[in-house]
From TrEMBL:
This is EmrB/QacA subfamily drug resistance transporter. Belongs to the major facilitator superfamily. EmrB family. Residues 15-480 form the Major facilitator superfamily (MFS) profile domain. PANTHER family: MAJOR FACILITATOR SUPERFAMILY MULTIDRUG TRANSPORTER MFSC (PTHR42718). The lineage of its organism: Bacteria, Bacillati, Bacillota, Bacilli, Bacillales. GO terms for cellular component: plasma membrane.
Length: 486
């Protein structure tokens, strides 16, 4: 188990820097790929439903492996885990860069994901044990600045690379950076860990893999296959049953793989619920706004990336500021203000038209990301602050797992809402046309129906975020180990 944070020990900034660079390039590589998917479809001759597995497969591997990171962090040293994680990521990136068949590329992405899944919980745990609670907000803010810069530059950089080079260049330029980071970790990380006797419960690993994997696969498939598909509701049902069995088993083990006792701490539980709600709703912007911009408005991928860039940069550069504000004022005020901003801007996005200006979209997205910067890191840090030090690995693993699952749920929910409402609007508009609509009119009806579906999905997202606003009023500044009810 990890010791409590020593207030007088200077944080090991060298270790933190290496870990952050490793986490940054794994984040960057994931955001780079989204805009390149159409190019990959054309080059490897695969359909949209097939190419989406590059994202779905990545999420599946993360969902399966992240719950095991609590055990791995307690069992092995930072050096060993980092080298394994970075080595897997490096191998996956190299293979992806030379892939000339889709199965090879998909396998490479899954190898990448197996390394990335370890990286984030490992970094979060080192951050928690390196800084006392009074300075943790500022530290997490700087950490957020570095990591949020990856999704900020990812879409724009990807658009530029895909326009000027082959999509494989996305992996080629990451490979040497990953190799340098691996070598830095090999020579500079020197920490050792006393031998720990805990063992991994194999049945727990199997149940966790089936449970989280089933949920992620089911919800990720719902958008393309529909909720009435046996493949969707069957895998979700199996996932839920396996997850219930997994949770019950953890409560009986002396050394659980993932300790659900973290939910005895009310601020951690509240932070988890708020994060899940926000994750579900925020996917409306990350998914639907690019669809609106490129499909309905005809904005190029490069210009779409540039439109999203200011908001992503604002989110990144606000992170250290919100970290300091958190240390001074706590999480409640930040969360209430941030969630209120997100609610208002999301409602504005539910009124998009064919004439909504490019600058208007940029400003609204920027304000929405400003609100997000005041919510996710402060709320999550406040929840983790209440946990005893020995629960940090379990808390970070739980947070990352919930983020993966809620992201998949948000994707499926909002795509389904958009698709259903789009179909309703299309039928209604077609019925209103006297006689059979011409090909040109059919195209116009399809665009109007899609616009209506996107607006309705944003409208539902507004109410989802409003739930988080109400929950934010119950946030209190956390005290470590305090499990008294709110």
């Amino acid at each position: 188990m990890e010791p409590s944070v020593n207030q007088n020990v200077r944080p090991k900034y060298g270790i933190l820097a290496i870990l952050m660079v490793g986490a940054f390039i794994s984040f960057l590589n994931n955001t780079l790929l989204n805009i390149a998917l159409p190019s990959i479809m054309d080059d490897l001759d695969v359909s949209t439903s097939v190419v989406q597995w590059l994202t779905t497969g990545y999420m599946l591997i993360n969902g399966i492996l992240i719950p095991t990171t609590a055990f791995l962090i307690q069992k092995y040293s930072v050096r060993r885990l980092f080298l394994v994680a970075m080595g897997l990521f490096l191998c996956g990136t190299f293979i992806a860069g030379i892939a000339h068949a889709f199965p090879v590329l998909l396998t490479a992405r899954m190898v990448q994901a197996s390394g990335s899944a370890i990286m984030m919980p490992l970094l979060m745990n080192v951050m928690l044990i390196s800084f006392p609670i009074a300075k943790r907000g500022t530290a997490m803010g700087i950490f957020g600045l570095i990591l949020m810069f990856a999704p900020a530059i990812g879409p724009t950089l990807s658009g530029w690379i895909v326009e000027h080079y082959d999509w494989r260049m996305l992996f080629h330029f990451i490979t040497p950076i990953a190799a340098v980071v691996f070598l830095l970790g090999f020579f500079l990380l020197k920490d050792k860990k006393e031998k720990v006797t805990i063992k991994l419960d194999i049945l727990s690993l199997i149940l966790s893999s089936i449970g989280f994997g089933g949920l992620l696969y089911g919800f990720s498939s719902a958008g393309s296959k529909g909720w009435d598909s046996l493949q969707v509701y069957g895998t979700i049902t199996i996932g839920v049953l396996a997850l219930i069995w997994f949770i019950l088993r953890q409560s009986k083990l002396e050394e659980p793989m993932l300790n659900f006792n973290v939910f005895k701490y009310p601020m951690f539980s509240l932070a988890s619920v708020i994060s899940v709600v926000v994750n579900i709703a925020m996917f409306s912007g990350f998914l639907l706004l690019p669809i609106y911009a490129q499909t309905i408005r005809g904005i190029s991928p490069m210009d779409t990336g540039l439109m999203l860039l200011p908001g992503a940069l604002l989110n990144a550069f606000m992170s250290p500021i919100t970290g300091r504000l958190f240390d001074r004022y706590g999480g409640r005020v930040l969360a209430i203000v941030g969630l209120s901003i997100m609610t208002i801007t999301t409602y504005c996005f539910s009124n998009l038209t064919f004439e909504t200006g490019y600058f208007t979209l940029m400003v609204l997205h920027g304000m929405r990301m400003l609100g997000l910067s005041m919510v996710m890191m402060p709320v999550s840090t406040n929840g983790l602050n209440q946990l005893p030090a020995e629960y940090y690995p379990h808390g970070t693993a739980m947070n990352n797992t919930l983020n993966q699952v809620s992201g998949a749920i948000g994707t499926a929910l909002l795509i389904t809402i958009m698709s259903i409402r789009e179909s309703v609007y299309a039928n209604r508009l077609t019925e209103a046309v006297a006689g059979g609509p011409t090909a040109e009119l059919q195209q116009q009806i399809a665009l109007e129906a899609m616009l209506g579906g996107i607006n309705d999905a944003f409208f539902i997202s507004t109410f989802i975020i409003a739930i988080a606003v109400i929950l934010a009023f119950f946030i209190k500044r956390a005290k470590q180990g305090d499990i008294k009810l709110m």
